[in-house]
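From the pipeline queue, job 12 of 40. The input is one protein chain; the requested action is below.

Action: predict structure.
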Amino acid sequence: MGSGDASSFETDLTVLLRMRLRKSGNGSEAMSNDTLRIEDAVNETCPWSGKPIAADSLTLYHGAVVGFCNPGCRDKFETAIRHFENALQVRRAESAQNSE
């Protein structure tokens, strides 16, 4: 996956999440991975494989439930998100240092 693809994926997912949160009315309810329900997922198909999502393959992203076809795809997503978040933190820290 190229960097353009990752950015597009993240943008598309963010749009989906915002639409789902608006549709549900708020999104302020606290959820944990223990209480995730497949019917609350913002998607019906896995963003990696295109297959239907599974109840044992859900995660929370920016307060919304995201589903995957299997735990491997879910874990790949979580790893990618951590990578992006870490890269953003480094970039922000470098920016802050350069502006001082």
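Job complete. The chain is about 50% helix and 10% strand.
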